[in-house]
Design brief:
The complex is a heterodimer of chains A (about 400) and B (about 250).
Chain A lengths: L1 H9 L3 H13 L4 H11 L3 H14 L4 H27 L3 H14 L4 H13 L1 H14 L10 H7 L6 H11 L2 H5 L37 H21 L49 H7 L6 E6 L8 E5 L2 E9 L3 E8 L2 E9 L4 E5 L5 E10 L4 E8 L8
Helix pairs in contact in A: 3-4, 4-5, 5-6, 6-7, 6-8, 7-8, 9-10
Chain B lengths: L1 H10 L9 E5 L7 H11 L5 E4 L8 H6 L5 H17 L5 E6 L2 H10 L9 E5 L10 H4 L6 E5 L4 H4 L13 H4 L11 H5 L2 E5 L19 H12 L11 H7 L7
Parallel strand pairs in B: 1-2, 1-3, 3-4, 4-5, 5-6
Helix pairs in contact in B: 2-10, 4-5
Classes of the chains: A alpha+beta (about 400), B alpha/beta (about 250).
Chain lengths: ~400, ~250
């Protein structure tokens, strides 16, 4: 008997061999799993996650699928969160609501996202009502898969405003679309036109947004590298303000009241050697003007970078407070310092996307700084500032 | 040693003296899920008392399922514990949770509570009671929501011949709770607070593969259940039974 148990431990028995064979050949999770693995290898976690989920429906007990979901979930959630921030800053509240719901679906314990969703529902009830009703009708089927919506909406803000963005969303969410075994942005099987030819998977930690959803795949493929380059920067560095938030003005100040004047991502010529605005922090708009010009919900938005020369390392944030970027890491987390004059008033370390901290302005008014996006490769961080009416509380 | 262990299982924990508190009923013949549920809740920030209510006869899962789970007398023990704690703290948070046949004990205990005595949330993991179990009476003693996890991949419930509550129909642990056919008045307000949590692929990230008992694992409880019960805010992902019914064809009450 002991000899038998030793044998069982040392060599794989026939049952083990049969199980292994079945796993390898017959009863695997299917093509969705292969697609997921491919997408993951290409650095598209949001697509990989969807495909792994698709595979899980067929094989919920597959360890490989479960591991794949665990591996890709954080990056997929970060991707959708970035898209949600973009939608919010573009005032597409219904889209933002849906995207945040997607984040929450992946990370149900993300209290910040849950709070944001409730805030959206409270502050913009009419805008999100339709999306909410859709959710109640269809549940998670109402949520975006790897849809091209945010790119569709932001790629041509002059032509496609929020309404058209919603249409795009609705289209992407149509039952036919939802039934597709592979996520939406795959116009050509096996090809990923949104990826530049020379891009390495590791170049896009949050995965490049899939900008091309047009039926004209040839044109899309031809334009894809430039589009992808734009979008990757937009999605990963400026937390969702998209092409409308190129540093055309001091500290990237934006006038969202005039969307027609904004260049599209496709049309905009991004100067590769653009330098940060002279003075960086000092040329930022004074607070009252900035508050009037910033998108709803944020008094101020800033993009800071240590490696991307288009953005300053430090900038006037609001009310006499300057924010200085110390660095980022690949978690991704950002380290920031806040200064009131020469005095450092806050040392913020290890802030993740969505994390927030309160700080006092020079006038004594309290504000909340929120990290909207982090791109570790270029050490770029996007932050927004909101009013903090209640007593200071650190989240 | 064995006697002490059995006594602990039969008697459950000491009676909690203050809120917040969670009462937990384990599954039939399954005496070990309470630990992971408690761990999950604590990992999510729960700092109250976790009390496992022992209801097993220690005669095996079949006896527990067919006899003890539908015993009003046994469930009354849990009723008394809830009542006593509520007497000590009329506003503090009390949640009641159960697994499999333990969910039948939870529902029976709630149904026997005197008028005006309420718990906050109820969580039923893989309930082996009927999907058409009328929750109206139990929900009169629930301030907030009743959550029920279910999975079509639950192999144990798939082979169940008789539900723990003795009511016919598929178990709620495989299809979720449904509006009962014999619906009385006020059913809308009741089932607006009954929320089914179906297995989703996303839950694989939290170690629930759709299995009967794996739903009570630490990560699942900490990440999916705790955010719903440890806050007083509505949870955005919740869709009640009524919401789901409204999504279907008119007249379909399933």
């Amino acid at each position: 008997m002991p000899a038998l148990s030793r044998l069982a431990v040392r060599s794989p028995g026939p049952i083990t061999l049969i199980c292994s064979l079945i796993t390898l050949v017959g009863c695997g999770p299917g093509p969705a799993y292969k697609e997921a693995a491919k997408a993951e290898k290409l650095g598209e976690p949001q697509i990989a996650y969807e495909d792994f989920c698709q595979a899980a429906r067929k094989s919920p007990g597959s360890g490989g699928v479960a591991e794949g979901i665990k591996r890709t979930a954080p990056a997929a959630a970060a991707y959708w969160q970035t898209q949600a921030w973009r939608a919010m800053t573009e005032l597409r509240y219904a889209d933002a609501w849906r995207l945040l719901m997607k984040v929450l679906e992946i990370r149900p314990n993300d209290t910040t996202t849950a709070t944001l969703i409730l805030q959206l529902q409270a502050q913009h009830p009419t805008e999100v009502a339709e999306a909410q009703a859709d959710w109640l009708r269809r549940g998670s089927a109402a949520l975006p898969r790897s849809t091209p919506l945010p790119q569709v909406a932001s790629a041509s803000p002059t032509a496609s405003g929020p309404a058209q963005g919603r249409e795009a969303f609705a289209k992407a969410d149509s039952p036919a679309e939802m039934r597709r075994s592979s996520p939406a942005p795959r116009p050509v099987k096996g090809k990923r036109p949104s990826r530049p030819a020379d891009a390495k998977p590791a170049d896009s930690p949050t995965g490049p947004p899939n900008a091309v959803a047009s039926a004209d795949t040839n044109r899309a493929a031809a334009e894809a590298p430039r589009q992808d380059d734009e979008d990757r920067l937009v999605a990963s560095t400026d937390g969702g303000r998209g092409a409308v938030d190129r540093p055309s003005g001091p500290s990237g100040a934006v006038d969202h009241s005039q969307p027609a004047a904004q260049p599209s991502a496709r049309d905009s010529k991004r100067p590769s050697s653009q330098t940060p605005p002279a003075g960086g922090a000092t040329v930022a708009s004074p607070f009252p003007q900035e508050a009037a010009r910033a998108p709803q919900g944020f008094l101020s938005l800033r993009t800071l970078s240590k490696k991307d020369k288009r953005f300053p390392k430090e900038a006037m944030l609001i009310d006499g407070v300057v924010v200085k970027l110390k660095g980022t890491d690949d978690d991704p987390e950002a380290d920031l310092d806040l200064f009131d004059g020469k005095k450092r008033i806050k040392k913020l370390r290890g802030l993740r996307i969505g994390a927030s901290q309160t700080f006092p302005g020079h006038s004594g008014v309290d504000y909340r700084l929120i990290v909207l996006a982090i791109h570790d490769k270029t050490q770029t961080v996007r932050v927004g500032v909101q009013e903090q009416p209640a007593s200071p509380a650190t989240r | 040693m064995l006697v002490v262990f059995a006594a602990a299982l039969l008697g459950g924990c000491a009676e909690p003296k203050k809120c917040p508190a969670v009462f937990y009923c384990d599954g039939a013949g399954w005496y070990s899920s309470g630990g992971s549920v408690a761990e999950g809740l604590r990992a999510a920030g729960f700092r109250g008392t976790f009390c496992t209510f022992g209801w097993s006869a220690m005669l095996g899962p079949a006896h527990d399922h067919f006899v003890n789970a539908s015993s009003k007398g046994i469930a009354r023990g849990l009723t008394r514990k809830i009542e006593n704690l509520r007497r000590l703290d009329s506003v503090g948070q009390i949640d009641v949770m159960g697994l499999s046949a333990g969910t039948s004990v939870v529902l029976l205990a709630l149904e026997q509570l005197p008028a005006g005595v309420e718990v906050d949330n109820v969580v039923l993991f893989s309930p082996s009671v009927s999907a058409e179990h009328n929750l109206t009476k139990a929900m009169q003693h629930v301030r907030r929501n009743l959550y029920a996890t279910y999975s079509p991949h639950d192999a144990i419930l798939a082979t169940l011949a008789v539900n723990a509550d003795g009511v016919s129909g598929p178990p709620a642990g495989t299809v979720g709770f449904r509006l009962p056919k014999q619906a009385g008045g006020g059913i809308d307000t009741v089932y607006q607070r009954v929320i089914n949590l179906p297995w989703e692929p996303a839950y694989l990230a939290y170690d629930w593969s759709g299995g009967h008992t794996s739903v009570t694992n630490r990560r699942m409880v900490a990440s999916v259940i705790a955010p719903r019960v440890l806050t007083r805010e509505p949870f955005p992902l919740d869709r009640s039974v009524l919401d789901r019914v409204a999504a279907r064809q008119p007249g379909d009450r399933s």
